[in-house]
Amino acid sequence: MDTAIRDILQRSQRILAICHVNPDGDALGSLLGFGWALKEMGKETALACADPVPPFYQYLPGHEEIVQQPVGEFDLVVSLDCSDAQRMGDSYRDEYRRLPLLNVDHHVTNLRFGTFNLVDLEAASTAEIIFLMLDELALPLDPPIAQCLLTGIVTDTRGFRTASCTPRVLSIANRLMAAGASLPEIVSRTLDRRPLAAIRLWAQALPGAQLRGRVLWTEVTEAMRAATGLATVDDSGLVNFLLTAEEADVAVVFSEKNGGQEVEVGFRARPGWDVAQVALALGGGGHMLASGVTVRGTLPEVRERVLALLDESLAAQERAHRIT
Ligand code: AMP
Ligand code: MN
Ligand code: MN
């Protein structure tokens, strides 16, 4: 953390922190871990996310303090786990755009959109960056902070299994457990649990899975979602599952939303491939091995366009591999 970032954090008294829309465990864990730490520093804080906290994250201490629309005056806005400013959604109101913005993130596609940018591409999660920040500020870890930050680490590494999981991640996890975080509780709440409706939705989406070269893809229609009664659009479990197919190097799930006008696209890749660039080219973002984007258009239009772009991108990557 450079001195300008340390100064702005110490000087600002009223801080608004915002994580990304459609929040995952890292968005919420880093938002709440950071929020608890700001309280310890004696700051007035507001925590915001433009979408509600999904029920299975409601074990996180302090989740009831997160608002969708912040109110009040602030000296500083902090974005967490967002690769661009749009990822903050409506919580980042127009009137806040004149305030200094600190961008804390770990996505390879991060656009460095802040007045200050604390972007660490080596970090497996934003929670890990928050941990290092607290360490530098010599703030003590307590069980609520530890539980929130370990949630971010566990969910973004899918239980310490991703290529991003470094020795540093494991030693930070060690310190968080020693400070009172419960690894079994986090794993059972986030990785090993999903609504029955999500399983029923997979049952509808899986028969349509198609292999195109080394790309395995399927789609989730609004009709399927209505039939199973699943309100939230989070198909990361499904796309992770598709990538377990031996025949696939890349998996894609297309999920229809907003009355068929938009499609949420989730990409996953095996190590050696890069799906961040195709997401970025479409206006989204993410990591080399896990990325996403929301595209306007009907399901068939978006599917054809995205699969064609993906084919081109993978072919270019293959050519580059052969040359190097
Ligand atoms: P998901 O498939 O939702 O688990 O997302 C995988 C990765 O892609 C995460 O790191 C997300 O932050 C990123 N991502 C997903 N959707 C978008 C989007 N619409 N814009 C930018 N990044 C996204
Ligand atoms: Mn995230
Ligand atoms: Mn993250």
Describe this entry's structure for a reader:
- This protein is an alpha/beta fold.
- The protein has two domains: 3-190, Alpha-Beta Complex (inorganic pyrophosphatase (n-terminal core)), CATH 3.90.1640.10; 196-323, Diaminopimelate Epimerase, Chain A, domain 1 (Roll), CATH 3.10.310.30.
- The protein is 39% helix and 18% strand.
- The protein has eleven helices and eleven strands.
- It has helices spanning 3-11, 25-40, 126-136, 143-156, 167-178, 183-191, 196-205, 222-228, 236-242, 276-281, 299-323, and strands at 14-19, 44-48, 76-80, 101-105, 116-119, 210-212, 215-220, 250-257, 262-269, 285-286, 290-296.
- The strands form two sheets. It has a six-stranded mixed sheet, with helices on both faces. It has a five-stranded parallel sheet with strand order 2-1-3-4-5.
- β10 (285-286) and β11 (290-296) form a beta hairpin.
- α2 (25-40) runs parallel beside α3.
- The structure holds adenosine monophosphate and manganese (II) ion (2 copies).
- The site of adenosine monophosphate has 15 residues, from α9, β10 and β11.
